[in-house]
Amino acid sequence: MREKLRNYIEASICPQFFYEEKLPHLWLLSLVLPALTGLFSMLCAGLDRYYAELCGVADVVKISLLGLAFGVCSVFFRASVIKIISAFTGDTVAFQELSYAIGASFGFPLLISFTGFVLRLAFSLNVSGVFLLVTALIQLIPVYYLMIYLNLGGIKKRKIISLATIVGIGAVQLIVLRLLL
User: Fold this and answer.
1) How far from 149 is each of 34, 87, 143, 152, 155, CA to CA, in Å?
2) How far is CA 138 from CA 37, 44, 86, 170, in A?
3) Which helix (H) or strand (E) holds 2?
4) Using the 8-state DSSP alphabet, how is residue 153 labeled?
5) Torsion sign (Cα): 163, 169, 172, 173
6) CA 122 from chain center: how many Å?
7) C-alpha–C-alpha distance, residues 138 and 79, integer Å
8) Distance between CA atoms of residues 3 and 123, nearest Å
């Protein structure tokens, strides 16, 4: 049991273990983790708006459901971007395993977004912006390691391709978050 837990923690940072199928496929995990991450992040932001009297309860529920959908869609967006880049570099990447690996690596972002939610409820701290930004940025670390592992573009170009992709994905993600909030 301890070995499995250690493997899942390690795979949350370096998701190639999920991609290589060294860990058992729990496809539900790859959907639940990003959905809960988006839910807690956006619920915290909605509660900040509610307590500032900028919106009502119905708006908080809408924002939370939007976060739930955003979490799942972000996985497929990232997997699609990597799949498109792999087509340009001439490499083959399996979309299903790629989306599973990205989704299953949302363990630490979920922990951070849940921490922000608990701080909001327990101490009434207006920390949703900070925790939303940290959660959004920490989600990019496993994607970078996965791209390095996939070796897109060969040994010489893989780091620049990975870094450019992460910067692009991060910029799009932050713009979408800004538009949502």
Assistant:
1) 22, 16, 10, 8, 10
2) 12, 17, 23, 10
3) helix 2-13
4) T
5) negative
6) 25
7) 17
8) 36
Report which residue type is found at 97.
E
Give the CA count within 13 Å in the CB-facing half-sphere of 49: 20
Q: And the tokens for 76?
A: 């497929």
pLDDT band at 21 (very low <50, low <70, confident <90, very high): low
The whole-number pLDDT of residue 22 equals: 62
Task: Compute the average pLDDT of residues 160-172.
Answer: 92
Q: How far is residue 81's CA from residue 118's CA, in Å, rounded to a whole number?
A: 33
Sign of the C-alpha dihedral computed for residues 82, 87, 93 and 97 taken in this order: positive
What are the CA-CA distances from residue 48 to residues 92, 97, 108, 172 (Å)?
Answer: 44, 37, 22, 24
By C-alpha distance, which of 32, 50, 52 is closest to 42? 50
Report how far apart, in Å, the C-alpha atoms of 79 and of each of 1, 3, 12, 144 are.
30, 28, 16, 12
Question: pTM of the full predicted structure?
Answer: 0.87
**CA angle, 36 as apex, 35 and 42 as ends, to 5°?**
90
